[in-house]
Design brief:
This protein is 73% helix and 0% strand. By secondary structure, the chain is an all-alpha fold.
Length: 272
Amino acid sequence: MFFSCVDTKIKLKPNEKNVDFLIEKGKVLWEQRTNKGALKKAEHFISRASEERPRDFELSVLLSRIKHTNANYFEKDPFIKKQALLEGAKIAKLAVLKHTKFESLFEDVIGDTSFKLISSIPNAPKELVPGLFWWAVNKAQYLNDQPVLERLNQRELLEVIMHRVLSLDPGFNYSGPYRFFGSLYSKIPGVELSQAQTYFEQAIKLNPEYLLNSVFMAEYYLQKKGDREQFNRILNNVINTDLNQYPTLMNENYFSKVHAQALLNKESSLFE
């Protein structure tokens, strides 16, 4: 009679082998990310694995990247896209905050959360670069079409995060920090547009093979400058690039070509 009262619907935790399987499956699908269905399945597997290993830094960073990719290249609904970017930023932020090499830095600072972040991030070790990078990238893209005041309120934190990445690993994600600042300073009011130009030119100089450096220069800097001729030339060069030229970048450069074509399709409205 006693056992008849016990709830038999016990949730069994996956064992370590099952979690490893989820990660392996998710990573294989991530490598097929130009396919929407594969990316969706990758997110499913990596999300489940991350739930079981919430302090796994690498896993959280990968999930943040998946959210970012889905938002930028597959999600059509503007609201869901913004939510995916915001989720990606939160996941990467938590990965940094929970990292054993950051917790003590953060806790040693006295003040509110914002002050503690601004003060501790400049001392973050190199191991945190991936988390810092995808935190800032997701958050900045989420803020792109938000009110100017909100973008300005977040500017200091974004600059602190990416300046730390720049100082530790300037070539991360194919000159990602330079690409980031080029984009940021094209959007923030009161900043000389020439600063954006300098960052974009540095990104392209160091990693011309990574097509997103050129696409972002056209989308952010050249559009803001009003240089339609150069905008058109750069994007057409991207579209005409042979993906086989850089095999290890095939996935990312494919997305860049898609991005370039989308910008050219609305060129007239961008330069009205």
